[in-house]
Write the structure tokens for this entry.
Amino acid sequence: MSLKNVRAFRRSLLDWYRRYGRDLPWRGTRDPYAILVSEFMLQQTQVSTVIPYYNEWLYRFPDFAALARASENDVLHAWQGLGYYARARNLHATARAIVNRRHGRFPRSVEQIRQLPGIGKYTAHAVASFAFNESVPIVESNTARVFTRLFNFRKPIDSDMGRKRLWQNAAMLVPKANALTYNSALIDLGALVCVPRQPKCGVCPVKKFCRAKNPETLPVRKSSPRTKRLIENHSLIVSRSRILLQKADRSWRGLWILPLLQKSPANQQSIYKGIFPFTNHRITLNVFAQRQHKIDRRLQRWIKINSLESIPIPSAHRRALRHLLNGHRQNYMTVDR
Ligand code: SF4
């Protein structure tokens, strides 16, 4: 695209954004903390799901200091239902790093922002752009789709070469001034007009700059790994209005789950079966009624059924608990997320 066309492209995009851009809660702030929270939440998660979580999170933890003071239990509980809990742990670790190592001051440079826990190139650029109006490009799912179509780029975008080209295209188009509005406009164009399945080219404000031949076939990705099926067996052990739960490890580290069984009990039917996706896995969760046994005090704990609402439990296990504890329903009222 020539320089003249780049300028005309930005003008068309910004004119459209002024009329049709989305009014999202994190668009009304320049607070790096609030923007960082929105960016962590938006990774792998839709805007409509994020909005109530974002509002509640800022009410509960209004700044880095409040989040740094919170316990891991409270942080995971507030994140419960959003999935990919490593994001919550990284956000918590970032808050503690800002308070303990940087005297509460959030860094301004992209290089320093990238040194914080769990912050990659996109998130660092997003915060620099949306909080500090830095002239930096951003490439996320919406803008990647727009770029591949604008430039009719037909190589896999999840290859090293594909990623490099996307960032180069993004850098070529980003303006020196007001990158904040421009980057927001580009994201909204991808979310509202240049949508994945049936792009609305007929009403697209940048159609005259677009080289896509078959836009619905873009972007191209390497073939995704096949979904693997896994079976997990857990036990339900209830005693005197208490239930035995276990602290999870790995991806659900810090959350509470039904105690894991190494294998399904012989000659016993499960009392609950649920299926849920997890990254590229499809997991069948079986639950078996078990009698009280010797508990592993390092990992397991008796929890009062009427206090289950206040502890972090992953959605798949909470669904199982709600179903299985139906008889205790009056004691176990919870919000399903
Ligand atoms: S013309 Fe169509 S494919 Fe090209 S940017 Fe606009 S919506 Fe996307």
